[in-house]
Every structure is written in C-alpha cells, then in structure tokens.
C-alpha cells in the first residue's frame, strides 16, 4: 500500500486567545506561542493557529480587520506569518483572518497556508458560512458581512497532502472526503475553527471523529481559547484525532499548546484492517470526489 504520509511528523496546535481588539497584540501573541511550541518540540513540521486569531470573531468587526491577501504586496498578517514560517522552517496553517478582495469589496474568512520558506502556498476561503439560529442557544449570521469561498483546498507538503477547511466546513462531509480521496489523497484535514459553548459540547468531538473515521485520516481542529470577556465564547478543546477516531491530544478551555505525532503506519494499518476504499459500492451511489 503506498503511504499517503511519507514519514512520521510532529504537529503543534496553538490554542490562543486572539480576540483582543489590537491586531498587532494578537499577532505578537501568536508569535510568542509558536516560539514556545518550537522550543518545546523543535522538530515540529506543521503548526496550526485558530480561526480568526488576529481579530474578534464578530460579524460587525470583520470588515474593519480585513486585509488584502497578496503574496507580493504582503499585508500585515501575511507578512508576519510568512516570516514565522520561514524562521522555524515549518508548514504554517495560519488559522484564518478576515480578507477583503479589493476588486469586489467582498469580505472572506480566509486561511492562509505557508511553506517552510515562508511562501504563501494557498488560501482557503470558508466555503460554508456559519448562519445558525438555535433557540435558547446562539444566533450567528456570518453572511451578514462575509461572502463564501468558491473552491476546495488541498495543499501539497513535503510529507503528503493536507486538506483545509474552516470550522463550519467540517459539518459538510463532502469537503473532507474530496480531500481524502484520490487524486488528492490527503493524510489529514486541518480545520482552524471556533465552535462555541453551545455547539461545541454538542458536536465538536463527534464531527472530528466522524470525519476521521469516514475517511481514515487524521483530523486536526484548532480553536481559540475561551474568553468570557469577548462577545463570542469559543469552545476551546483543540484536538487531534487519528484515523481510528481516537483523540490523541486535546486542550482544555484556556490558552494552551497541544502536540502530537502523526504516523503513516496508523493510517496504513487501519486501512488494511478495515478496507473501506476497496469496498465502496460506486455502482449504487456516486463517488463525490469525481
Ligand atoms: N463558528 C463556526 O463556523 C461553526 C460552529 O460554531 C458550529 O458549526 O457549531
């Protein structure tokens, strides 16, 4: 069986309280935590930040914090993250930041992804917007200010391919399956996320484990720390789930870094034991990756 993850690799997730109104403070805090992660685990290959880590998670604030994302004329956050990726030689999934497209004036919730040279290798604009109204729970309508992205994202790394989604995207199984199946063959799906204290307890672990088990890949969910002084109370509990559906690392609610090692044998052994990919009945239903 060809290995979709070429070697064992270590990852670190930065569960950050990034909801300060001062963007530079949020960026500096991310840099400080990444430095701590790299000191503790210097051979880390992939670092992940949370959704909207440089701004408040609020529909009334996205436009104010939005930046043009352009690798040539680097915006404040892109420049900042690019230097960090280069400094430590890491793949950096730079959480997400509010982005403005200067041509259309549309705002997106966008994850920038950098290689170890600091190049911006791709962006993922949140495809499914978080528009919900849960009685006695939470009402949130990202579409009041955000536009949805129009592409799916799988990035190429020296270790194999990684699918990227943002938060609510994880509720739509097609997105992960398309990354996990050929030709993308991702070994992990990474979701910078910000579930909340209503939907987190209901679905966070369930969704992480379901996407992992359905596709026999790792799922990696990175949340902001919970800050009860901000308008949005993030769930926390950043986690890494293996292809068997076991959570191999999980944070609590406060600021924390979690670490894990991803092992190609875990994927190969589990796929051999339960060979879903050769048992699918595409004569009865469609292969959504086609
Ligand atoms: N914030 C999100 O995009 C999604 C979320 O909180 C949920 O799906 O629940």
Task: Output the keywords.
15 strands; globular; 7-stranded mixed sheet; 290 residues; 6-stranded mixed sheet; binds the ligand NC(=O)CC(=O)C(=O)O; 7 helices; alpha/beta
Overview in brief:
Helix 1 runs parallel beside helix 3 (76-88). With 290 residues, the chain is an alpha/beta fold.
Description:
InterPro entries: C-N_Hydrolase (IPR003010), C-N_Hydrolase_sf (IPR036526), Nit1/2_C-N_Hydrolase (IPR045254). This is CN hydrolase domain-containing protein. One of its GO terms (biological process) is oxaloacetate metabolic process. Strands 1, 2, 3, 4, 5, 6 and 15 form a seven-stranded mixed beta sheet that branches. Strands 9-10-11-12-13-14 form a six-stranded mixed beta sheet, covered by helices on one side. Strands 7-8 form a two-stranded antiparallel sheet. Helix 1 packs parallel to helix 3. It is built from seven helices and 15 strands. The protein has 290 residues and is an alpha/beta fold. The protein binds the ligand NC(=O)CC(=O)C(=O)O.
């Amino acid at each position: 069986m060809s290995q979709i993850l070429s070697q064992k690799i270590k990852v670190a997730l930065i569960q950050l309280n990034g909801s300060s109104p001062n963007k530079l403070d949020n960026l500096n805090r991310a840099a400080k935590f990444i430095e701590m992660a790299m000191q503790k685990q210097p051979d880390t290959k992939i670092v992940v930040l949370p959704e909207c880590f440089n701004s408040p998670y609020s529909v009334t604030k996205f436009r104010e914090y939005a930046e043009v994302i352009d690798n040539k004329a680097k915006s404040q956050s892109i420049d900042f993250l690019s230097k960090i990726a280069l400094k430590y030689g890491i793949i950096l999934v730079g959480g997400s930041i509010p982005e403005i497209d200067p041509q259309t004036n549309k705002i997106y919730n966008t994850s920038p992804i950098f290689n170890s040279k600091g190049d911006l290798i791709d962006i993922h604009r949140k495809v499914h917007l978080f528009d919900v109204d849960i009685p006695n729970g939470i009402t949130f309508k990202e579409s009041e200010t955000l536009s949805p992205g129009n592409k799916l994202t799988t990035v190429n790394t020296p270790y194999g391919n990684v699918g990227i989604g943002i938060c609510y995207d994880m509720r739509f199984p097609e997105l992960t399956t398309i990354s996990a199946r050929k030709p993308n063959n991702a070994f992990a799906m990474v979701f910078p996320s910000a579930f909340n204290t209503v939907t987190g307890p209901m679905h966070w672990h369930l969704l992480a484990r379901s996407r992992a088990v359905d596709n026999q890949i790792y799922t990696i969910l990175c949340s902001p720390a919970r800050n009860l002084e901000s308008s949005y109370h993030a769930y926390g509990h950043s986690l890494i789930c293996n292809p068997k559906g076991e959570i191999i690392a999980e944070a609590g609610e406060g600021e924390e870094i979690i670490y894990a090692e991803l092992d190609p044998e875990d994927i190969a052994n589990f796929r051999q034991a339960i060979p879903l990919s050769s048992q699918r009945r595409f004569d009865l239903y469609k292969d959504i990756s086609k």
